[in-house]
Amino acid sequence: MNKLQKTPTPLFCKRLTMIVATIFLAAITATIIQYSKLPTSIPVLQSFNSGDAQFGPKIAIFYLPFVALMIFLMLHYLEIKAGYPVPRKNKEMQSHVQRQNAIMTFCLIKNAILLYFTYSLWNDLAMALGRERILQQWHAYLFLFILFLIFVWGILRGVLLGRNEKLKKS
Q1: pLDDT score at 47
Q2: Which stretch of 13-22, 113-122, 131-140 has the lowest confidence by average pLDDT?
Q3: Sign (positive/negative) of CA torsion 66, 31, 24, 51?
Q4: Which of 2, 14, 116, 128 is the most exposed place for a label (fewest CB within 10 A)?
Q5: What is the pLDDT of residue 73?
Q6: Is the pTM higher than 0.90?
Q7: Contacts by 143-151 with C-beta closer than 8 Å and gap 24+?
Q8: Across the strands, what pairs with 41?
């Protein structure tokens, strides 16, 4: 592939994004359907160690999905921009496989974040309706660990791909 052409998003990323977006929209739809059943004051800030830390108006159930959507859109924009070749000072332009690695990394990060926020929305909805907490403390740690692994994987793979490109040229 020509280095000056945009690197297309892999089919895996497109399908993963569609699946995760569908799950997110299902959670939003369920929240809208259940909205009239919510009490006027719902738990909005929860502690993993104790009970509900703070209460707020029931419209607050949509704060977290809004933040999730904004983060998702920002990362989606960065994923798209990662596919374009960018001339860099004193460095060679990234290769097709390096740009594809960046696309995959952004794709995995944005979908992991949206899935976690969706899971958190389900938890908030369950708590607001008086059900048991779904989201446990270890889930948050697991999410952060998975996000860390995705970052490390993307960085290490990018470095290795850069070295392989240099070896091929010499």
Answers
A1: 61
A2: 131-140
A3: positive
A4: 2
A5: 95
A6: no
A7: 143/112, 143/116, 146/112, 147/109, 147/112, 147/113, 150/105, 150/108, 150/109, 150/112, 151/105, 151/109
A8: 57
